[in-house]
Structure prediction request, 97 residues.
Amino acid sequence: MQIRLIPREESVAEWAMIELQGTLDSTGTLAGQRIGILKWENKKALFRIGHHIMEGKEIKLQNPLLVLVRDVENQGVVQIAAVIRKKVQFRDRPMPV
Prediction:
């Protein structure tokens, strides 16, 4: 099966991926909700979630990833929503604030 990729009319957004060790537990849905605050200090990423803070770093992905969205009106057409070229990796356990 061949899938035709069509970039959106505006320029393709560039996103970053966040990699965490472990899981995020929530009693409700996280869709559309702010889960934390991400700050940069001296090339280190600091991610605060609730009463915990994690320290991470930015890593360039060896192969970029595409975020694809299916076109509901035109089957077989997939639009490129964004490209992901880097990730912010948090490898250590969170520290209490």
Observations:
- The longest strand covers residues 52-70.
- The two ends are 51 Å apart (CA to CA).
- The chain has a mean pLDDT of 85.
- Residues 28 and 82 are 27 Å apart (CA to CA).
